[in-house]
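Shipment paperwork, digital attachment
Item: protein structure file
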Amino acid sequence: MDKPSGMTSHGVVAKIRRYIGIKKVGHAGTLDPLATGVLIVCVGFATRLSEYAMHQTKRYIAQVRLGVTTTTYDAEGEITAENDITHITRADVENAIACFIGTIDQLPPIYSAIKQGGRKLYEIARAGGDVQLQPRQVHIDSISILEWSPPFVTLDVTCASGTYIRSLAHDLGQALGVGAYLSDLRRIASGAFSIEQATSLDQLLSTDWRQFLLPPDMPLQSWPAITLSPAAENEIRHGRPIKNIQTFSTDTLIRAYTADEHLIAILRADGTYLKPHKVFLT
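Attachment content:
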């Protein structure tokens, strides 16, 4: 989906669930309400593949407003400070963003869904509680400047799952000494899923939704694959292991297909056997 601004990811899923009449619908990778772009929605047995779709490389177009900080690190929060940025140059920003490329420790925003003591951080913050932020290791592949139009700078960011672009905007402002917040965010890719493939919610809800379905194994294309014989397929369907005749390394995950090319299972290599990890009976 190309998620519209102003809706939560859960809200998009709820609308789709009601429209298509299928209870098993979920998303793979939350976008903040103000953000737009690629939201992977899983339907039926594909919900069991969401964890693999979720933890893949993401690409964002992020607009950052320099000189202002907010409580939420984005445009929804209350302004906490304002600073002059007339001395900041494009070269300053380029030098600053270079420090964030690679594996870094990142503090998540106070207003985030990460849990502390069983409660989400934003719930604790809104209740006036004491939020204890813990740094998390994230990986940013690349950052480049798409547009320099002070006080705004637009960045093209490619990063691993789990990276908070709001925190990146805030930290960039801190590095420049003037503060910053994320003013706009659009996800243009998530793993194999790109914005060019995405459909709008309005379009989906006004026509036959099935025409927009993508193959459930799209997130798994980098994995090894095997085609099962009828006998092996029967064993897997009943939850029994089969021989590891191709000698996959232990713990390797393998896509398993029927003779007519339908994804039937994910197998895990365990020594001389391939054991059913997830079996799809549909």
